[in-house]
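Work through this protein:
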Amino acid sequence: MAHISLRAVLLGALGASALSANIAHAQEPLQVVTSFSILDDMVSTIGGDHVSVTSLVGPDGDAHAFSPKPADAQSLADADLVVVNGLQFEGWIDRLVDASGYEGEVVVASNGIDTRSFEGHEDEGDHDDHDDHDDHDHQDHATDGEEEHHHHGDVDPHAWQDLENGEQYARNIRDALVKADPAHADAYRANAERYIDEMEALDKEAKERLSQIPASDRLIITSHDAFGYFADAYDLELLSPVGINTLAEPSASDMGSLIQQIESSHAKALFLENMTNPALINQLHEETDIAIGGTLYADALTAEGEGSTYLGMFQHNVDTLLDALAADD
């Protein structure tokens, strides 16, 4: 029998142990942190079993009012990849990244879309260069215990409310996952292709169904200005009492003007949002006697049910608008 030295046995055992550790590490899912729940679902859908996703702002959460906690900084410190909306949506993200010590890539999911301004006009500037963390202008950050307010600038950040933009989000997320984890590139590309096909089909369906709403009834009234891209994509109109920031409150004179505008427009319904205070819409309902047509998903998914996915959210919004605006009087 050949003599096998103890040293050879130990080296073999150590080598096998190292190989097993490397294989286990290679099979660990990519740790991805997203800024809010809609991106969470997009990354989870495209990444599948190869990603583990943590969302900073969870279901039904308001990113406008979000205040990061130490645990959020730790989530970023442990991340392999961070995905944000960009377009000045996350006014807190740069400070959080700096505090966490995260040095990896911050993927801006909205890169490459055609942006719109708050006034509803196409923005003439070039917004394809969002390769920084988030190209926003900060006010002075609030000290601990103070509420932090954030200016979005003149660009509407709610680009996911147009499914064609959602397709671009998916492409950007796909490319980022492939770059971060090339071993699973084929899976990411296949998942993204199916996802984009589903978006294209739902977009076509939405255009066909929403075209049934009469011209006189195509007004959406929500509490904050989150549906501009949706209105542009599906030929609707939009009014909102607080503008872009859910933390803002309209003055009495603004509310008076809005009530007059709503009454003169012969609006058919008002709409609540899942992540904002319903008080303003309820007040408008009381002042104008216009019906509340339902709840729309704006800046957040919900934890369960049809609004728990991006495509489910979109389907729900289309169904809700049709039920309220296309129904016979």
Observations:
- DSSP finds ten helices and eight strands in the chain.
- The beta strands are 30-36, 51-57, 81-84, 106-108, 219-221, 237-239, 270-273, 292-296.
- The chain has two domains: 27-202, 212-325.
- The two ends are 95 Å apart (CA to CA).
